[in-house]
Amino acid sequence: MADDKKSGGLSQMSEQVQASQAWSSIFRPGSIFRKGYSDSPRNRSYVIMNSVLYHLHPVKVKRHAVKVSYTLCLGGLSFFLFIHLTVTGIFLMFFYRPTAAQAWNDIQTLQTAVGFGLLVRNMHRWAAHLMVLSVFLHMARVFYHGAYKPPREFNWVIGVMLLQFTLLLSFTGYLLPWDQLALWAVTVGTNMMGFTPVFGEQVRFVLLGGVEIGTDTLLRWYTLHVLMLPFVLVIFLAIHFWRVRKDGGISGPL
Amino acid sequence: MTEIPEHLRKRAEAAKAKAQAAAGGDAPSADGPSADAPAGTAPAGDEKIPSHLLDRGTAAADMPVAAAGVPAVPVGGSGPDGHNQRLLTVVKSGSIQDTRAMPVDKVHVWPHLLVAEFLSALTVTLFTLLFAIFVNAPLLELADFNKTPNPSKAPWYFMGLQELLTMFHPMVAGVTIPGIGLFLLIMAPYIDKNPSKRPEDRKFAISLMTIHLMFWSVLVMIGSFFRGPGFNFVFPWNAGLFFEL
């Protein structure tokens, strides 16, 4: 029948596509997208070995390492929230101009006139708070398991840096809506940093891009928030993940 | 993990026991052929081959009749010099009995780990989505330098610092205390030399961390919920909530 013919044509086409050079140039030999997947230990290994995931995960991990009750997934979730925040953040960037004259109006317009604008902004905000929380809890979890002990000392140091970058990312994002909440929260925060001994005034000047908060501060914090801090954070993340594997996977049971 | 077949292991053990008996308690690892080995028949040559292994190459006929009360029946070997077996090579025990590679209980990342990761990511996405649908992010009126809100509060994760400001000089509260705190946090693995990970061996470290985390959380909560106009202490159930996320 016509249906049979159609589906026959379709399967023939997919066979042709899978035999083509373009297809085999995309998927490595052994990839499950080349030869199909059936559940076997060998194929389970191939899923990781022949995909980009191999950069993140080994083929096998210790059995206790996959126990959710041990890690509570907190490190992974922190990373996932970072990705989540990047995606929603990029969406927000399309509708936002970091100047004192336009920022607040842009957010107002985003919330009222842009499809899903309000929802995405809400998600960005709540995910940011959640990320601060999950990074903090991740640190507590690692401490209580003694997972910072040799050979993982240096990865703990990287982790504390990541916690600080997370706080800085959240804090720089706090100013961007340019409303009363943003302005005065940042005023309180930067006044505090102005009390740094010896270089207090300079620290404050560098942070604000001037002697007081203004449109220059907004631009400065915007650049920090969307570009510089994520860039630095990703480098530290890469080292963090690499060290997890080099130090023999996540720490063992108590 | 190298598995040694049962029969090979038994044979090795038997040979070892026999050699030890022959060597009169001498360590069987001795390099040269042992003096009391029923030698003479053993081919003098490779000094590295333990004598007990060479013994096994000796013709059965030449073996001393040991404990067995049976008279030695000469068994004519078909090989050269009446031998019916000979030593081809010696495989040192270390090369096949590598017990250093301890077996580890491992599972495949796909599906065991990836499924768990995917599900937790999905849960968090769902949670933020639902939360975002029902709770709006705050957007107060346009920033105004002439209108200071009372109270003015930092983001919640800095509320602990702002709370410290009510007790100490700003340089102590805003810089010294958090600076020392962060420094100690970074140095934790180098300060804590206790190698044990078991909670019962780490009472001091765990108590110290818990006290600090509690201290910090309490400060954040007081600052967030219990501070009203003028940053004075209020009860949220009397004066209302002065807190925006």
Percentage of β-strand residues of chain B: under 5%
**Greatest chain-chain contact:** A-B, 85 and 72 residues
State the end-to-end distance of chain B: 55 Å
Based on CA atoms alone, the radius of gyration of chain B comes out at 40 Å
Q: Label the overall shape of chain B.
A: elongated
Q: CATH topology of the largest domain in chain B, which one?
A: Helix Hairpins
Largest sheet, strands/sense/barrel of chain A: none
Order of SSEs of chain B, N→C?
A: HHHEHHHHH
Helix fraction bin of chain A:
over 70%
Roughly what percent helix of chain B? 40-55%
Descriptive account of the structure:
The complex is a heterodimer of chains A (254) and B (245). Chain A is mainly α and 254 residues long. Chain A is 70% helix and 1% strand. Chain A has two domains: 42 residues, no CATH class; 179 residues, Cytochrome Bc1 Complex, Chain C. In chain A, helix 7 packs across helix 8, helix 9 crosses helix 10 and helix 9 packs antiparallel against helix 12. The model of chain A has no long low-confidence stretch (mean pLDDT 91). Helix content of chain B is 44%, strand content 1%. Chain B has eight helices and one strand, in the order αααβααααα. At the A-B interface, helix 4, strand 1, helix 6, helix 7 and helix 8 of A face strand 1, helix 4, helix 5, helix 6 and helix 7 of B. Strand 1 of chain A pairs antiparallel with strand 1 of chain B, so a sheet runs across the interface.
